[in-house]
Amino acid sequence: MRVHVVDPSAYTPAYDHALCAALAREGVEVELFTSRFVHASAPAPDGYARRELFYRAALGAPSSRLRRATKLAEHVPDMLRYRAAAASAELVHFQWLALPQLDAALLPRRRPLVLTAHDVLAREPSARQRAAQRRLYRRMDAVIVHSEHGRRRLVEELGLPPASVHTIPHGAFEHLVSAPSGPLPPELDDNGAPVVLCFGLIRPYKGVDVLVEAWQGISGAQLWIVGRPRYDIAALRARAGATVRWVTRYVSDGELAACFRRADVVVLPYREIEQSGVLATALAFASPLVLSDVGGFGEVAAAGAARLVAPGDPHALRAALTGLLADPAERDRLAAAARALANGKWSWQRVAERTKALYASLLSCTA
């Protein structure tokens, strides 16, 4: 079985690596087609090949207007170049297609196509964007989502055929746990008090402002907010108290591991989401979790691995954090449930087995 996994912009290199390595362990011949990851070194291939075919002439700093413009200029030629390269694959599995208005017309032909819908539907889309996303999804032979909540949205809101939408969990990032742990980021002044960790890119929908408000009045603990901002957070930082520490840059895998190992609680106060790589990381580290009740997060809580709070409610969030910080037995229970998920339903072996079975079913239909 020869499969191409395609992530043109290298949006999720950790996910790409974990999936490709797990599929290779299941006997799939895998080649990853992507672009250079500009923030750090991508994980070394483990049993699969990696080709950096996309955006090789892109200029400018990460997330800059220049870089976006030069990538856009390369996009159609690179997608056509990949379409030719796809002749060597029996099946193509896309991870991201960022321009559905264009990409539906640029896909490879005469072989099964799979897309993982990491973001199930665009946030606040126009009617034209929603129609383009529907056309793109309908070009696929199968769409993978990471939660039953996401599956219902695609079936009910976009009208996709139920048989074409498949729920396969995200996969816990176990390779980050086995990697050597580095020192904590130097920006973190660890005074030995309990730590609540909020990790990942800082975007408005992730509710960091709600968390900062909820933290008012919590004493005897530290809040670590670690991630690159994607909007101006100066006012947010000004409101935060002295027990809030910030790391507003990309951190290495070693620093990431040190943060998660030190954290007593991991919090994801999102206003909206379907599923999250940060959640997959926290499960791998068996972190006690406090999650907003959005998207597929409730499915993790239903397995006993998280406490849920209403999104956008700082009072409920403060109560959950305060209660969990004061209850080590409950933290231990949540950690055990997280570990069970990471070793079971969310393990990459299970994910790869189910993904390979989906590939086989699609290939049998074309034989």
Summed over residues and divided by their number, the pLDDT gives a mean of: 94
Give the quaternary arrangement of the chains: single chain
N- and C-termini, Cα separation: 12 Å
Please name the CATH architecture of the largest domain: 3-Layer(aba) Sandwich
Largest sheet: 7 strands, parallel
Which terms summarize this structure?
single chain; 367 residues; alpha/beta; Rossmann fold; 2 domains; seven-stranded parallel β-sheet; six-stranded parallel β-sheet
Write a brief caption for the model.
The chain has 367 residues and is of the alpha/beta class. The protein has helices at 13-25, 65-85, 100-103, 127-138, 148-157, 174-178, 208-215, 234-239, 253-262, 277-284, 297-302, 314-325, 328-343, 348-366; strands spanning 2-7, 29-34, 49-52, 91-94, 113-116, 142-145, 165-167, 195-199, 222-226, 244-247, 265-268, 289-292, 307-309.
